[in-house]
Amino acid sequence: MRIVVAMDSFKGSLSSMEANQAVMHALDGHEVIAIPISDGGEGFLDAWFTTHEDATVVEEVVPCLDGVERTARFGFEPSTKHAVIEVAETTGLTLLSHVDPWRYSSIGVGHQIVQALDCGASVITVGLGGSGTIDGGKGLLEALGVRFFDTFGSVLSTIPHQLHEVASIDWSGLDPRVRNVEWRIASDVRNPLIGENGAAHVFGPQKGLAADEVIRYDEILESYANCFEQDMRIWQGGGAAGGIGFAFLQLGATYMKGIEEVVKWSKMEELLKEADWLITGEGKFDAQSLEGKAPYGLARLAHTYEVPTLVFTGQSDYTSHVESGIVAIFPIVSRVMTLEEAIWEAAPLLTNAVRRVRHVIEKAPRQ
């Protein structure tokens, strides 16, 4: 059988490439093509490196979301002057031992942008997802030379971000090279910055906002957005990565679906035309997955070529999704265990889950 394996990351346990490898261990004897996948979050950079042979890895020490300096990567392709930045490298939840939405900053993303500009980048694509911040992109703009003031005219700090104190903005120090860049942001969400579908309401709790803080934080984001000349409070994608999308929209960025970018890079359509099965999955397959996350997007693409899809996941309320070509969804947990155990044992659990259903793959060839 010819099987395309394209697993998204299992956040906190497996990267896309590690998940692909775990699946491949169960499919010996078959022709398996593994493709790293991301919808803009973790793995976005690896997916780009895998499909761009001339790209170079740029590693630099930068201050990350909590102010701690860490080594972070981005990609640069000299021939096209294209840089690719993954927000999770410097602002990812996985970097933190505890969450603090009132403190953490997107400053690391801004530092990586400066480094990309120093390399000569004229096109910058940023993968949004997996962030631990809700600073509306204030930190990254500060790294690019923008200053934020309170009502007394004092410059505000970057960490803690003091978003609730922002009263005015000075753009005069903005790095002039920023205006000559083609900005592109890739994400799996279209949420705006504010409102019931905005950054605070939808993503705030996972970044540490208490239930009774959400409405207040949404009001803070609206007040912050009102300080910008361009009213982009309800533009799609502005709420991605805790409002980092909003900052890039202010710079003139074009929004695109992350999975569509990765599909284009990997020539996934050509691979699926000749495939018998697609195997994909992620840490949790739920209603949000059906809003455009990577496994769902890939399944729909495979379905157009009559290729059936199997989804392997840590958790799901679904058993299939026939409309998109997903014939079965398999949770990988095989016994009662704690969340910590499931995260720690994710790779062998995934391998064993695929082994358990291998007979389905072998006895039900493509129609």
Give a description of the structure.
The protein is an alpha/beta fold and 367 residues long. It has 2 domains: 2-35 and 267-363, 3-Layer(aba) Sandwich (Rossmann fold); 44-258, Glycerate kinase, domain 2 (Alpha-Beta Complex), CATH 3.90.1510. It has 14 helices and 13 strands. It has helices at residues 16-24, 44-51, 88-91, 107-118, 138-143, 199-203, 214-225, 244-250, 258-266, 268-273, 294-304, 339-344, 346-356, 358-363; strands spanning 2-7, 31-34, 56-63, 69-77, 82-86, 123-127, 147-149, 168-170, 182-187, 254-257, 277-285, 309-316, 326-331. The strands form 3 sheets. The chain has a 6-stranded mixed β-sheet, with helices on both faces. Helix 1 (16-24) crosses helix 13 and helix 2 (44-51) packs parallel to helix 9 (258-266).
Count of DSSP H/I helices: 14
**Could you tell me how far the N terminus lies from the C terminus, measured between alpha carbons in angstroms?**
13 Å
Look up the CATH topology of the largest domain: Glycerate kinase, domain 2
Strand content: 15-25%
At CATH level 2, the architecture of the largest domain is Alpha-Beta Complex
**Share of helical residues:** 25-40%
- Count structural domains: 2
Pfam family, one: Gly_kinase
InterPro entries: Glyc_kinase_flavodox-like_fold, Glycerate_kinase, Glycerate_kinase_RE-like, Glycerate_kinase_sf
Keywords: Kinase, Transferase
Protein name: Glycerate kinase
